[in-house]
């Protein structure tokens, strides 16, 4: 893989060009990761190859079911992701998204209520009424986010 960074006077925006062999899966993954930097997630309508760009503001949470990542949106529709949960977690670092268990990432801007649960866990209620459980190992990150530690 050849990577170049060219800085030009007067250049106002970043231009990224990915050149690859046809159907190289690495190129597709690189482009998908770059698009997440623009505040959008790449999603697919279930059972199709129809791609959608989902703004972060439309995403409630992301979870894993049957070895597939699902993106749950504010309008009640679920989309599939071609990325693994750890890849999404990495690309969503330093955003409003936060990992709350090994299976779930939540958009913290969509949390309307937090309540304590047994065994030092927390329950988050999202703006659509969905409740998601924060496991013990991720509670400290929620508290840090709330400046409680």
Describe the structure.
The longest helix has 12 residues, at 25-36. The protein has 149 residues and is an alpha+beta fold. The chain has a five-stranded antiparallel β-sheet with strand order 5-4-3-7-6, with helices on one face. A three-stranded antiparallel β-sheet has the order 8-9-10. The chain contains three helices and ten strands; from the N terminus they run αβββββαβββββα.
Structural class by secondary-structure content: alpha+beta
Distance between the termini: 43 Å
Rg is 18 Å
Q: Secondary-structure element sequence?
A: HEEEEEHEEEEEH
Q: Which term fits the overall shape?
A: globular
Q: Whole-number average pLDDT?
A: 89
% residues in beta strands? 25-35%
Give the biggest sheet: 5 strands, antiparallel
Q: Ranges with pLDDT <50 over ≥5 residues?
A: none
Q: What is the total tally of β strands? A: 10
Helical percentage? 10-25%
């Amino acid at each position: 893989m050849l990577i170049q960074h060219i800085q030009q006077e007067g250049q106002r925006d970043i231009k990224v060009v990915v050149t690859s062999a046809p159907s190289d899966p690495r190129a597709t993954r690189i482009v998908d990761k770059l698009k997440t930097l623009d505040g959008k997630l790449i999603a697919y309508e279930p059972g199709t190859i129809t791609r959608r760009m989902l703004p972060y503001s439309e995403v409630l949470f992301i979870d894993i079911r049957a070895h597939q990542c699902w993106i749950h949106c504010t309008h009640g529709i679920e989309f599939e992701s071609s990325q693994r949960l750890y890849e999404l977690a990495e690309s969503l670092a330093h955003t409003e998204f936060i990992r709350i268990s090994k299976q779930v990432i939540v958009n913290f801007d969509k949390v309307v209520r937090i309540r304590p649960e047994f065994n030092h866990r927390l329950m988050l209620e999202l703006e659509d009424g969905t409740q998601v459980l924060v496991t013990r190992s991720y509670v400290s990150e929620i508290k840090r986010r709330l400046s409680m530690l």
